[in-house]
Amino acid sequence: METGTTRHGSPEAESRIHRGTNQSGMRDHNERLVLSLVRQHGSLAKSDIARMTGLSAQTVSVIMRELEEDKLLVRQAPLRGKIGQPSIPMALNPDGAYFIGLKIGRRSAELVLIDFLGNVRSMLQHSYRYPAPRETVEFVTSGMKTMRGELTPAQDKRIAGLGIAMPFELWNWADTAGAPRDVMDEWRHRDIRADIQAQCEFPVYLQNDATSACGAELVFGKAGAARDFVYFYLGAFAGGGIVLNGHLFGGPTGNAGALGSMPVPGPDGKPTQLIDVASIAMLEKALNARGVEASHLWTSPEDWGEIGVELDDWIACASQALAYAIVAASSVIDFEAAVIDGWMPKAVRRRLVDAVVEAVGKIDGEGLRLPAIREGTVGIHARALGGASLPLSERFLIGSTMISRSA
Asked: What pTM was computed for the model?
């Protein structure tokens, strides 16, 4: 960690935002610990942090002074009324750092800019019939130009990274996405992270889209305080992630929490995968079979309008599959909670979660401690916000994010 000689507002202080991406270039462990605690609690005084961490008062004082000099922490109003000097809580500075998130999905891409608190400062969306690499890079190029143009030069210098949330092996989507195989096969040979990195002076990260959504729930979520939970995100395809001891867990290959591949009973009782039952693409398929144009599922996720029996049937099938997936996962890890979110209106999510709770109650769970089942709190933009959380978590928070820097 650098010494306390860096001055507030100096070029040296601003350069600390852009320290390298190797381990020696990230924030010191104790700095990240302090920032994680302040993020979790909203604001904390030095005495609180010393008590929580076991660090000496002098060490905490040095760390918080440097974080304040780096404009990552700001002072709050003194807390008076106690014996001795008033306590001065410190909080995260919203303008301390900025992060960009990119979600690449089956029918749309999203680009989001957030501040250090996770507040959305700007968001852009691009809809398409299927994702194409060149078109995606052009969207990011023009989108970043627009977003960065809305920042002051000082704010722009504090962009600390960009995170990409996308399905791995996207080229296998060709048939399901209804896309030309040659276009989708381009994803096999393109390193999208490297293409975007070539345009950025800050680091670019890559992670599976559903795992990124899980990371958004971990970093920005507002409901509950579970440190061990299994997470399901239902987009065009169903997927998920795992949080253990407050850390996103990806496993040695980053594929842990590939819940879309979990075997579950199908509508005919035969084994199938969760992705083939609970994905919103299955609802779209049912609507198309009735001759109903279903593009509003992707363009209007806040309000699907009146859908009818197809939605009822999808919720019934998806909830059964999710219930079995939750019980199966609970036989391996003693999760505190199972969190369900997705690209859907809140009312639909509520119906789905209620149906899952009911379905779990009908499964034989003897010998298991089943988790609390609850709605996610980040919502439809969880994947894009999860992308933005990658550089935030990697560079400023405690715990491995298990992210990749190559496609």
From this structure: 0.85
Q: How far apart are CA 166 and CA 407, in angstroms?
A: 10
Show the tokens assigned to 310: 């197809």
Tens of pLDDT, residues 256-294: 888 999 999 987 888 999 999 999 999 999 999 999 989
302 three-class SS: coil
Phi/psi at 208 (5° precision): -55, 140
| Same domain assignment for residues 295 and 203 | no
Contact 136, 198 (CB under 8 A): no
Torsion of CA 203, 185, 259, 358, to 10 degrees: 120
Comparing C-alpha atoms, which of 193, 202, 352, 372 is closest to residue 282?
352
* Same-domain check for residues 100 and 66: no
Instruction: Give residue-wise pLDDT tens across range 14-35.
Output: 445 544 333 333 468 899 999 9
Give me the domain span that covers residue 231.
Answer: 225-377
Q: Which helix (H) or strand (E) holds 351?
A: helix 346-360
Torsion-angle region of 259 (φ positive above 0: left; ψ -120 to 50: alpha; else: beta):
alpha
pLDDT at 83: 62
